[in-house]
Amino acid sequence: MKTILLVLFITIFLFGAALAAHSESIPANIWEFTTDYYDVIGEPQLSSSLIGDNEYDAGETSTLFIQLMNYGLVFGFKTEKTPIDANESLDAQTELNKEYDVTTALNIRGTLQNENGAPVTILSRLQQGGSLRSGEVSTPMEFDIEVNNNAPSGTYELILNLTYQYQYDVKVEGYPDMEFDFWYVTKNQTLPVIITVRPKPFFEIGEVSSHTRPGDQSVLYITYTNIGDETAQDAVARISVVDPFSTTDDQAYLGTLAPGESYRAQYRIKVDGDALPKTYGFNTEVKYRDERGDIQISDVMKAPIRVYDTIPFSERIGSAVYLVVVLVIVGVVGLYFYKKRSRTA
Q1: 306 — phi, psi (to 5°)?
Q2: pTM (whole model) above 0.70
Q3: What are the tens digits of pLDDT across the range 107-159?
Q4: Which residues in the chain come in under a pLDDT of 50?
Q5: Could you tell me which of 113, 198, 201 has the C-alpha nearest to residue 155?
Q6: Pick the CATH number of 23-197 from 1.20.1250.10, 3.20.20.190, 2.60.40.10, 3.40.50.300
Q7: DSSP per residue, 14-33
Q8: Which single residue of 203, 206, 215, 307 could bond 273 by disulfide (Cβ 3.0 to 4.6 Å)?
Q9: Distances (CA, A) of 274 to 1, 66, 149, 171, 215
């Protein structure tokens, strides 16, 4: 029994909360009177603007501060009923004054959406914008965004979807104890929000080569290409080696790489004698100076390094024997011609 009562209490509580939320979002419409003296024609009209810089770097997480302004206008009004006495005249004047609230936007709510395929992830959900009379400016609505790591530079459009209510009509009756009827409608507005992704170098790994066997010291070659749309200056590449590798030469100077340019860097590496023959991976990144003079570090890239099988002893002996045979043959031929020349001299 207690469980049933508890469930019933929770249900009533949630239902009440839902009703309260609904009543806050849409004012209750009351339309009981028949007397309507005036109709004022107009509505709110919102505009938006970004506060601060609208330029962002690829990979950046930031907050957009979007400020709203209401420039709603009254286009005119018409008389529905002419007052017939002093009391009705006071009712009519009060109604006319309140009718001009037709330009006030109530309970503004907004969501930022990516409807045009911008390389951006929107992290914030529904935001509240309050209420605005005509001519008023809002406290900025805040939306968190994340620009994709590989976002191309350029200008992109996000969409701010707004929903709000406004007073469509009002009736007044019963001077001196006036009563009011209000009628509210909901309006939707979509506004563009323009952001810019700054140019930025991007690097990718091309050819990776190294003929490495267990116990060897060798040179590792990695080709880096700037596939971005900005020049990287004073670029330095770095590798992070892992077991079974070691190095005392983990950096390579690439210099200045314009978009589309490549550089083949080289590193000296050593492989442990007990290393397994297989493909390993090195992390590598590029540190550079952008066109504004700021130091940047690229995303981490993975360079595949293959360790080959050790040459069997029999193959090494076979190669040595072959070399000796070749040298003997060359020596015998040389000796033959030397003696022949000596006899003819």
Answers
A1: -105, 130
A2: no
A3: 999 999 999 999 999 999 999 999 999 999 999 999 999 999 889 999 999 99
A4: 1-25, 313, 316
A5: 198
A6: 2.60.40.10
A7: HHHHHHHHHHHHSPPP----
A8: 215
A9: 73, 61, 39, 92, 7
